[in-house]
Specification:
Elements: H1 10-34, H2 37-64, H3 68-99, H4 109-112, E1 118-123, H5 135-138, H6 140-144, E2 147-153, E3 156-159, E4 172-177, H7 182-188, H8 208-235, H9 238-265, H10 276-295, H11 297-301, H12 307-315, E5 319-324, H13 336-339, H14 341-345, E6 348-354, E7 357-360, E8 373-378, H15 380-390
Antiparallel strand pairs: 1-4, 2-3, 2-4, 5-8, 6-7, 6-8
């Protein structure tokens, strides 16, 4: 939502705060994994904007409460807003690892960069191929594999831009996708290609592979917890709320394991101060999961949510979707790598339920099977495309 379209009601403010907080999490982790100060700065700008919107939201909520009954009804709105603010604060704390140079071992970064997805930032240069063209014309997901999370036009933000968005010189593109698509989208923006990783051999720390696994799992857990929490609110689903709780408990265990790894690694590190950022990263990731769990409290307790919360979730730039894979459908037996769902539909798979077991943030080799329950997030038009692939009719419950 651009600055010249100032939100005027609680619902609009809640929508933008949600979109901003999710983008902040993506960019904050990318800033740390790539040691990118520009991405960390974008997180700071988003935090300032989100903070202002949440202050307006609280004022409007207080003005709207004309009776004890009104106050009771609006309490859930302020509860959700508080959880969203916590997520944004935690993302800012992650970005501070880069801004304050708290340190993260360089030997970890090459492996962290090869996670399934990466996020990045690029400014559109003068006379770039993308200047004056719409996203429909550019077909970035198809041509580069990259999905635009947001576009910053000067000081105004457009979250999850649509196909009619036209790019201009000096626009800042915030994107997410496979690592090999980074230079492809930079080429469209007229930016120089990033140099190839030289693969310099640095003295390895003990149990290095496990440290990388922990960091990536914490990132995936935090993102999955937030996605499932919003889905639990939208569908008023206690089962999804219970899964958020399970992720939060797993996050606690991962945080403990990361702290233990840092203590063991300190004597062998070239510079023990380089490990400070890991401690901050672990704490902030756990903080995000805690906020997601807080968000689902009303669903867990069977308490009624204010209608504005559902309205906001339905009108946000992204929609939550759940559907069951039908036998002999196009996704039955196919892997995420084969299907390229994010590119083909724009939908991001948050989690898959198979029987009583959940798979969070499934990776590219994961293959779907008939009966799998898919929880996904993406643009509204992508839901119908995913449903068609799953053999599901959206006109009737699946």
């Amino acid at each position: 939502m651009a600055d010249d379209e100032q939100p005027k009601n609680v619902k609009d403010l809640l929508v933008e705060a949600k979109d901003a907080s999710e983008l902040m999490v993506d960019l904050a982790y990318a800033a740390v994994f790539f040691d990118d100060e520009k991405l960390a700065e974008e997180v700071g700008k988003l935090e300032d904007r989100m903070g202002g919107n949440l202050r307006k939201l609280r004022k409007l909520a207080m003005l709207a409460a004309r009776s004890p009954e009104d106050a009771d009804a609006l309490e859930s709105v302020l509860w959700i807003a508080s959880a969203i603010e916590t997520i944004g604060d935690a993302a800012s704390d992650i970005a501070r690892v880069v801004r304050a140079k708290l340190g993260i071992p360089e030997v970890l970064r090459p492996d962290l960069r090869h996670a399934n997805e990466v996020s990045g930032r690029v400014r559109v240069r003068e006379d770039a191929p993308a200047v004056g063209r719409s996203l429909r014309e550019l077909s970035l997901p198809t041509e580069t594999g990259m999905w635009l999370l947001a576009v910053r036009h000067g000081q105004s933000w457009e979250f999850d831009p649509g196909p009619d968005t036209v790019l201009s010189q000096r626009d800042v593109l915030l994107f997410q996708g496979p690592e090999d698509g980074i230079n492809l989208i930079r080429e469209q923006a007229g930016a120089a290609a990033l140099p190839e990783d030289e693969g310099e051999d640095l003295p390895p720390l003990s149990e290095l592979d496990r440290a990388v696994d922990i960091l990536i799992e914490m990132k995936d857990s935090a993102e999955a917890a937030v996605g499932l929490a919003y889905s639990a609110l939208l569908f008023n689903d206690r089962g999804l709320a219970a899964e958020v709780n399970a992720i939060e408990e797993r996050s606690d265990a991962l945080h403990d394991e990361l702290e233990s790894w840092v203590l063991r690694a300190a004597p062998e590190a070239r510079n023990p101060d380089d490990l400070r950022g890991l401690i901050r990263l672990g704490a902030a990731s756990e903080w995000i999961c805690d906020a997601a769990r807080q968000m689902t409290w009303y669903v867990e307790q069977g308490e009624e949510l204010h209608p504005v919360i559902r309205m906001a979730l339905e009108e946000t730039e992204e929609t939550s979707s759940e559907m069951v894979v039908q036998a002999a459908s196009q996704v039955d037996g196919k892997s995420l790598r084969e299907l390229r769902l994010e590119t083909e539909t724009g939908m991001w798979v948050v989690a898959v339920q198979r029987g009583t077991r959940w798979i969070y943030r499934p990776r590219a080799p994961f293959a779907f099977a008939a009966g799998d329950r898919i929880i996904s997030i993406g643009p509204e038009e992508g839901e119908a495309d995913l449903a068609a692939l799953c053999g599901v009719s959206l006109e009737t419950p699946d």
